């Protein structure tokens, strides 16, 4: 069961999440319904009062929890835990324990972060965490900055002083106030800039470059270490230097003694994650106080008359604001100016949102305009910076991430402090810098006295508003502080649900404004030709008149984009609004094509948002139903850990949500315009390929293949697919447990399987209602194939990605859910218009051992945790399944052969002739040999006379032991007549052809043969004893066991019965009884407007068969047994059987099929079935469907001469295929009819059937046999070789070949 990971549980205080959301609520931008929105949208618009439902806050908190998880993994990977028996693979303590006395090299910061980010990006990231207490890390005194010999003095670390060597801040001494510390810090900063720092030699140190030594940890050099030789190079070190945390350290804003190389502070936490008690006692502050400290401090200066001087050099507007002593000074921005302009602060209005203590959110500030966006009228001119600040600014601009992914230029801001300071997060100070929040004030939220900003100034108003009120907007000349945009108390807004027209409007707006997300899904935009509208519905449009000339300004576009993203997130991430969006008034889902079209529109404007929101929504599918809480403790535990107030979903609601998510995945795939293209792409991906090989490159163009690859490798879409399929397996387990409870109570109906409910909406043949949207007929026909095919492709993609290379696979999780989905679709493939070829996944067959894997499957016992891939044979090609089947038979045959050989050697060495023999008397020795012959014989030898093939066969295999039948077969055929056939395979083919022909002869009394189809069926009430049917079944079993095909034709109904499948439909008997099928079909389709059924057809409700000239009938609704031959004279036919009418004609057809294929021949078939499984393992036959089993027994009757010519090999003919005799041979053969083709194939291979898999699996060789017009062609049937003399003319070849084929009976050497 895959659960959602909402947070990383560490030792932060219980209120930390609430405080974090409170701080983010104060800092996040609030989307509002734009002024030019149509009036219809106002009915859907609601206020959002839950911070978790605000998209900006959600994105920020998600990023925050991810970074926490990364930090925990870094600590685990680099330092390990305190447990000596740790078994977490990524924990350093576990690596150390497994290494024993061998040395273990630690990961450096870059390699550890790389691995940590990968581990934190998994579907279930907390699974890899070590839950033991962390090990102590080395303190700052253990680290010494590494100094390269001869390096310039400017890049060496400056000596540590009581005050911070980078930002000039001093530590507070006992009894010293915060204000005194700040004043001393400022004064010392000025003095230091004027006098400069002096080194130990008395010279002034010029810091023109960054001190990179503070980023490195002192480690012993090991030139044999792979980690040091790769990740320790300068190129890889730069990756760690360029992280926001280390950029901050390079600029000198944090105390070097408080930051480790991995970026986490030393003094705040211990290695087990617990807080340093001593530090807390000294500080006397809790996490909540730290969170609110910036707001309380700012409240002291938050007044209209307060002026903050902008300091020169490293002093910025941020550092000018007074900070509490618990807060570290922030780094400076190279974009700030050195002018000492005073900036008055505007008074702040209260912030609306969730209840927060007043002393926590005391102040607010206006977002500042970055200097990069200032105009020439600004009096703040930049002054030259020191080299270190200049370099830090450049590096920050390179690695600064954007809030939006649409490519719009946004002001860049340097990170003001490390991403993660400690598990006790100071969210009020960190939220804006961590999550890159931007305050995007809409035009109508500004102060009523301030005019609207111009388009060229809109970006300046979109700066980040810090939670700590530290950044201020630098006003342009002539603009008063009161006219700056301010936050209002209006809460964020969103649409409560989305109608079809609203979705069209929102997608059109983003597409028209150019604010859609840049992605690789095709088509990237929906043009007019793909648009669909609801019948008799008018599309919605914006009211441009309300905005006038600013309707399409960048601020208006951004306002619309924020509102649309918020609405998509609100609706798609919760079950109630989602189901309201995609269901009608009766809570029934829209038709599948309408859902697909709506998802297509949304995924082409905001695919990341759609997939991520649905991923969050899918987490609700794992919540157990309430009925399971009372029965299972784990369900109660899950409810207590979940913490959400949302009720568990019902099985029907879960199926609807899964259906919507699957349609979103289907919509991600590129559009195709014919079913053939769709099937070809599915076939290519079944091999695990993105593009087909060169010989198959003509299937589909490479561009389409790459578009498919982009869609099916999209990280967010693939993550959604994994969670949805994992939810499917979980919901199916819930259903099993619920049904188990119902079996105990027996007072309710069982719960349906969630997959059956999902697929019920996809059965197009059962849906009579047209789609809600107006689509063309061609598009509807294509969509019928699109949805199930792409669902299979997504299930296959998840399986191939999660497969570990073994045939034994999990039954739960994403792989188990995807496999169950494929199984459910296969079960309903007829109604979903799919063929068997859609399910084949050749990727598995190419990577599994064809011999060992089938044997492992025979001994595998299916359980609740794991299943075997061969239990789903439709994943494999029929030819591959035949290979597995024959591998099983060959293994059993080889085992029997080796056992007999070992027994024979033991007997020989025990009683061999000689002085040491245990049985010296020869007569007794011979008697013992005779008695042990059965155990010591390595082959099953049958001596058969040509005139009594069936009789000799019965005598040879009657009462044979099973171990004898398992051994390789050897046939001695016609030796009494002087034939010298040496059995290497050809004699066996000849023998089985003769034996089956005699057994199926209608005169023999066991089978009947249809005069039209030539198919054989059991004789009802046959006079022959049942043991003969069993022996005939054993003959067929021996042939199949030895890999031979038989010249027999049985209807598919018999193979369905051998596989324990029911024969209930007319198409099940159509191949064996075509005339009967046509008559019964006419009966079912008759329209009584043309006459009554009983008058037109005049059928009675009875089953009749002519046996040996006597008509035998039985009424089908009163009996269930057919009389045998000995009972025929004592039984009478019914005289007053009821007529078949319109009311009972359906039941009549069903009963007639059952009596034809089961009741009338039940004893004979059961005896035949018993003999059929004498040599064949019953489970191995379950690999086949009826068609494949028929081809294994009978072979393929269609003979393609062109294909045969392509696979033929030549021996002795110069020029091979171009030789005159060869050309004459094929020119004659290609004119043969079907019977002549069968004779030719039988003459060369001893069988008139093509083996399963086609002619490519057939060996056919033409070998030159001298130059002579007197000899006839001959053949080695065991080796598939025809000896063809080089005749003088084509006429001679025609005559000799025809004579050889007509007289091909008997053997010289076979």
What does this molecule look like?
Its EC number is 2.3.2.26. This protein is mainly alpha-helical and 1310 residues long. Helix content is 42%, strand content 5%. It has 48 helices and 16 strands. The strands form 7 sheets. A 4-stranded mixed beta sheet has the order 13-14-16-15, with helices on one face. α3 crosses α5, α9 packs antiparallel against α13 and α18 crosses α22. The longest helix is centred in the last third of the chain and has 34 residues. The N terminus is likely disordered.
List keywords for this structure.
1310 residues; 42% helix; 4-stranded mixed beta sheet; two-stranded antiparallel sheet; 48 helices; mainly alpha
Strand arrangement across the biggest beta sheet = 13-14-16-15
Strand tally is: 16
Structural class, judged by helices and strands?
mainly alpha
Largest sheet: number of strands, sense, barrel closure: 4 strands, mixed
Write the layout of secondary structure elements.
Layout: H1 16-27, H2 39-42, E1 45-47, H3 55-79, H4 92-99, H5 109-120, H6 178-195, H7 226-231, H8 234-241, H9 244-250, H10 277-283, H11 287-301, E2 307-309, H12 317-320, E3 342-344, H13 387-399, H14 427-435, E4 493-495, H15 500-513, H16 554-572, H17 575-582, H18 592-603, H19 607-618, H20 626-629, H21 633-642, H22 651-668, H23 675-686, H24 702-712, H25 715-745, H26 754-760, H27 777-802, E5 808-810, H28 813-827, H29 842-845, H30 852-858, E6 866-868, H31 878-911, H32 922-931, H33 933-936, E7 940-944, H34 949-957, H35 962-965, E8 969-973, H36 986-999, E9 1007-1009, E10 1016-1018, H37 1026-1041, H38 1052-1058, H39 1074-1085, H40 1093-1096, E11 1102-1107, E12 1110-1115, H41 1145-1159, H42 1162-1172, H43 1178-1181, H44 1186-1194, H45 1201-1207, E13 1209-1211, H46 1220-1229, H47 1234-1245, E14 1261-1264, E15 1274-1276, E16 1281-1284, H48 1290-1302
Parallel strand pairs: 7-8, 13-14, 14-16
Antiparallel strand pairs: 1-4, 2-3, 5-6, 9-10, 11-12, 15-16
Helix pairs in contact: 1-14, 3-5, 9-13, 15-16, 16-19, 17-22, 18-22, 19-22, 19-25, 22-25, 22-26, 22-27, 23-27, 25-27, 25-28, 27-28, 30-31, 36-37, 37-42, 38-44
């Amino acid at each position: 069961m895959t659960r959602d990971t909402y947070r990383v549980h560490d030792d932060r205080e219980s209120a930390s999440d609430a405080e974090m959301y409170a701080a983010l609520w104060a800092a996040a931008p609030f989307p509002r319904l734009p002024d030019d929105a149509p009036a219809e949208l106002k009915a859907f618009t609601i206020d959002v009062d839950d911070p978790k439902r605000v998209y900006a806050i959600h994105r920020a908190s998600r990023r925050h929890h991810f970074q926490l998880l990364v930090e925990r993994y870094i600590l685990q990977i680099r330092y390990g835990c305190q447990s000596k028996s740790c078994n977490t693979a990524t924990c350093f303590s576990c690596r150390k324990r497994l290494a024993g006395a061998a040395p273990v090299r630690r990961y450096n910061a870059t390699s550890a972060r790389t691995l940590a980010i990968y581990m934190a990006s998994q579907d279930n990231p907390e699974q890899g965490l070590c839950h033991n207490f962390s090990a102590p890390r080395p303190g700052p005194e253990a680290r010494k900055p590494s100094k390269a010999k001869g390096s310039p003095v400017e890049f060496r670390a400056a000596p540590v002083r009581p005050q911070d060597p980078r930002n000039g801040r001093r530590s507070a001494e006992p009894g010293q106030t915060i204000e005194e510390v700040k004043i001393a810090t400022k004064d010392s900063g000025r003095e230091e800039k004027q006098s400069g720092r002096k080194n130990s030699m008395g010279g002034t140190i010029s810091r023109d470059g960054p001190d990179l030594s503070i980023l490195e940890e002192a480690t012993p050099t090991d030139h044999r270490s792979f980690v040091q030789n790769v990740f320790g190079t300068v190129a890889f070190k730069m990756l760690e230097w360029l992280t926001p945390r280390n950029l901050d350290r390079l600029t000198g804003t944090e105390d070097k003694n408080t930051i480790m190389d991995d970026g986490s502070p030393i003094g705040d936490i211990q290695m087990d994650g617990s807080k340093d008690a001593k530090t807390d006692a000294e500080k006397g502050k809790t996490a909540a106080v730290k969170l609110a400290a910036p707001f309380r401090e700012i409240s002291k200066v938050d007044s209209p008359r307060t002026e903050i001087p902008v300091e020169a050099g490293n002093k910025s507007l941020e550092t000018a604001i007074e900070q509490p002593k618990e807060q570290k000074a922030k780094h400076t921005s190279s974009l700030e100016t050195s002018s000492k302009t005073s900036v008055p602060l505007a008074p702040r209005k209260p912030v609306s949102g969730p209840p927060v203590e007043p002393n926590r959110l005391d102040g607010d500030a206006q977002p500042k305009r970055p200097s990069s966006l200032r105009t020439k009228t600004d009096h703040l001119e930049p002054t030259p910076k020191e080299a270190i600040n200049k370099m830090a600014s450049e590096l920050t601009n390179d690695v600064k991430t954007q809030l939006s992914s649409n490519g719009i230029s946004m002001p860049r801001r340097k990170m003001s402090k490390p991403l993660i300071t400690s598990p006790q997060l100071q969210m009020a100070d960190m939220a804006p810098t961590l999550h890159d929040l931007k305050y995007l004030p809409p035009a109508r939220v500004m102060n009523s006295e301030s005019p609207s900003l111009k388009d060229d100034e809109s970006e300046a108003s979109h700066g980040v508003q810090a939670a700590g009120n530290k950044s201020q907007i630098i006003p342009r000349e002539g603009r008063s502080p009161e006219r700056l945009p301010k936050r209002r108390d209006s809460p964020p807004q969103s649409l409560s649900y989305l109608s079809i027209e609203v979705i069209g409007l929102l997608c059109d707006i983003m597409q028209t404004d150019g604010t859609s997300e840049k992605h690789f899904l095709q088509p990237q935009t929906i043009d007019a030709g793909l648009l669909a509208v609801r019948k008799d519905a008018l599309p919605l449009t914006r009211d441009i008149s309300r905005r006038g000339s600013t309707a399409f300004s960048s601020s208006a576009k951004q306002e619309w984009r924020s509102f649309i993203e918020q609405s998509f997130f609100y609706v798609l991430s919760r079950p109630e609004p989602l189901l309201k969006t995609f269901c009608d008034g009766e809570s029934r889902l829209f038709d599948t094509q309408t859902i697909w079209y709506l998802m297509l529109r949304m995924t082409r404007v905001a695919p990341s948002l759609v997939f991520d929101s649905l991923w969050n929504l899918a987490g609700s599918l794992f919540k157990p139903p309430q009925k399971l809480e009372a029965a299972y403790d784990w369900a109660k535990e899950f409810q207590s850990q979940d913490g959400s107030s949302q009720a568990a979903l019902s099985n029907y609601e879960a199926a609807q949500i899964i259906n919507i998510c699957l349609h979103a995945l289907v919509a991600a795939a590129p559009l195709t315009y014919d079913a053939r293209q769709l099937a070809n792409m599915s076939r290519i991906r079944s091999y695990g390929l993105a593009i087909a090989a060169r010989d198959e490159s003509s299937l589909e163009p490479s561009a389409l293949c790459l578009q498919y690859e982009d869609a099916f490798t999209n990280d967010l879409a693939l993550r959604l697919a994994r969670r949805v399929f994992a939810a499917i397996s979980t919901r199916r387990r819930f259903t099993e447990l619920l049904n188990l409870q119902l079996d105990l109570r027996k007072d309710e109906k069982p719960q349906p399987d969630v997959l059956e409910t999902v697929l019920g909406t996809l059965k197009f043949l059962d849906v009579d209602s047209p789609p809600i949207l107006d689509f063309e007929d061609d598009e509807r026909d294509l969509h019928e194939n699109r949805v199930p095919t792409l669902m299979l492709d997504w299930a296959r993609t998840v399986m191939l990605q999660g497969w570990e290379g073994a045939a034994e696979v999990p039954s739960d999780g994403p792989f188990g859910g995807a496999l169950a989905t494929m199984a459910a679709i296969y079960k309903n493939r007829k109604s979903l218009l799919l063929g068997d070829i859609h399910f084949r996944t050749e990727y598995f067959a190419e990577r599994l051992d064809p011999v060992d894997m089938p044997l492992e499957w025979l001994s595998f016992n299916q359980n609740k945790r794991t299943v075997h891939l061969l239990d789903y044979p439709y994943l494999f090609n029929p030819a591959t399944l035949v290979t597995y089947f024959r591998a099983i038979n060959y293994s059993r045959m080889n085992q029997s052969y080796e056992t007999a050989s070992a027994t024979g050697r033991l007997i020989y060495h025990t009683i061999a002739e000689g002085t040491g023999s245990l049985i010296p008397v020869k007569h007794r020795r011979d008697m013992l040999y005779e008695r042990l012959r059965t155990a010591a014989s390595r082959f099953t030898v049958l001596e058969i006379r040509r005139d009594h093939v069936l009789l000799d066969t019965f005598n040879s295999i009657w009462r044979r032991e099973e171990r004898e039948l398992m051994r390789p077969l050897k046939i001695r055929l016609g030796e009494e007549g002087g034939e010298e056939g040496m059995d290497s395979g050809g004699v066996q083919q000849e023998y089985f052809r003769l034996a089956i022909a005699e057994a199926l002869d209608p005169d023999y009394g066991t089978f009947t043969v249809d005069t039209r189809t030539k198919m054989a069926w059991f004789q009802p009430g046959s006079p022959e004893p049942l043991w003969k049917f069993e022996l005939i079944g054993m003959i067929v079993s021996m042939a199949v066991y030895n890999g031979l095909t038989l010249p027999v034709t049985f209807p598919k109904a018999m193979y369905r019965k051998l596989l324990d499948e029911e024969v209930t439909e007319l198409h099940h008997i159509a191949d064996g009884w075509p005339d009967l099928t046509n008559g019964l079909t006419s009966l079912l389709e008759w329209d009584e407007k043309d006459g009554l059924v009983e008058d037109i057809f005049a059928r009675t409700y009875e089953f009749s068969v002519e046996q040996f000239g006597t008509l035998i009938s039985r009424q089908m609704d009163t009996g269930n047994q057919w009389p045998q031959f000995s009972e025929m004279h004592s039984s009478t036919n019914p005289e007053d059987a009821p007529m078949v009418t319109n009311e009972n004609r359906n039941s009549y057809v069903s009963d007639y099929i059952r009596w034809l294929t089961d009741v009338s021949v039940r004893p004979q078939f059961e005896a035949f079935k018993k003999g059929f499984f004498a040599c064949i393992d019953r489970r191995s036959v379950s690999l086949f469907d009826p068609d494949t089993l028929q081809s294994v027994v009978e072979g393929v009757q269609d003979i393609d001469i062109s294909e045969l010519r392509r696979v033929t090999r030549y021996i002795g003919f110069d020029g091979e295929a171009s030789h005159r005799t060869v050309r004459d041979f094929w020119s004659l053969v290609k004119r043969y009819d079907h019977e002549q083709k069968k004779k030719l194939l039988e003459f060369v291979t001893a069988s008139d059937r093509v083996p399963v898999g086609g002619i490519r699996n057939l060996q056919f060789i033409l070998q030159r046999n001298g130059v002579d017009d007197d000899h006839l062609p001959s053949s080695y049937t065991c080796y598939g070789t025809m000896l063809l003399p080089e005749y003088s003319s084509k006429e001679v070849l025609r005559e000799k070949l025809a004579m050889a084929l007509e007289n091909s009976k008997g053997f010289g050497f076979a």
